[in-house]
Amino acid sequence: MAFSAFVFVVAFCAASLIGVALVGEPVVWVFLAALVVAVLAVMSIHIAMQWEKVVVLRLGKFSRTKGPGLYFTIPFIDQIALSADQRVMVTGFGAEATLTSDLVPINVDAVLFWMVWDAEKAALEVENYYNSVNLAAQTALRDAIGRASASEVAVRRNQLDEELQEVIEDKTSQWGITVLSVEIRDIVIPESLQEVMSAEAQAEREKNARMVLAEVEKDISSMLVEAADQYKENEVALRLRTMHLLYESVKNTGGTVVIPSAYSEGFSDSTLDALTESLKKR
Questions:
Q1: Which residues pair with 45 in a beta bridge?
Q2: Is residue 199 a contact partner of residue 110, using CB atoms and an 8 Å limit?
């Protein structure tokens, strides 16, 4: 608007000065002619911003794309079909109460990052490229949710982003639009289902914990069987192990241990001497 006003004022003043100089005096028709020239100048001289690409039609047919900067058109012959913004666009879209494959209604919010790379296709292949991209994204999101279960939608968020980007890109590439990325912002699952899924996840974790504990018990039992076989073949080792356990018990508790008379025979001097001699022979 500011540029058009500037062009209008400059063209009107220039045409008026030229007309007065040619006629020799200011008359009404000179100013009327200057007004017409100013209007034609506004219709002919345009400016496009750095991020804009302008599609120009001549007599209804595609002529050229212009911009950024200054460009010119022929009044009543050339028409500006589209001024495409080629910056990265951010569009929020969502799917409310969409049924998953297991018939669970969920709400999903997502963000689409895209840009126009071919202004000609964006002007000629689709009526309103901005609304079309938004609708295509919503449709792709609903289709993706309908093919997955509620748990898959909640867990496979990254895979869902990639799938949406591929599907939307396949549609919008025909319109001269490329999809940079799709990001799922929020997934809302009904509260009643959240409790059920939480209980299911807790049961699954408890199951895994029990399986791990069973594997550990199995390993421990195998080790005990092997140790029992070793002690069975070597009575000296068994007595030494018994003494070691007793020592550790007294050391950790700091108390005293009452040893039965029959059990204490294993700790007599004669017995210890026999153990020592046995160990030397080995």
A1: 72
A2: no
The CB density around residue 92, as the number of other CB atoms within 10 Å, is 11
The Cα–Cα gap between 118 and 37 comes to: 34
Architecture per CATH, 89-189 = 2-Layer Sandwich (3.30)
The secondary structure of 110-139 as a DSSP string is EEEEEEES-HHHHHHS-S-HHHHHHHHHHH
Beta-bridge partner residues of 92: 111
**Domain map of the chain by residue range?**
2-82, 89-189, 196-281
- Evaluate whether 257 touches 263 at the Cβ level (below 8 Å): no
Distance of alpha carbon 58 from alpha carbon 190, whole angstroms: 56
Give pLDDT tens digits for 77-91. Answer: 999 999 999 999 999
In tens, the pLDDT along 32-91 reads 998 999 999 999 999 999 999 999 999 989 999 998 999 999 999 999 999 999 999 999
Supply the pTM of this predicted model: 0.63
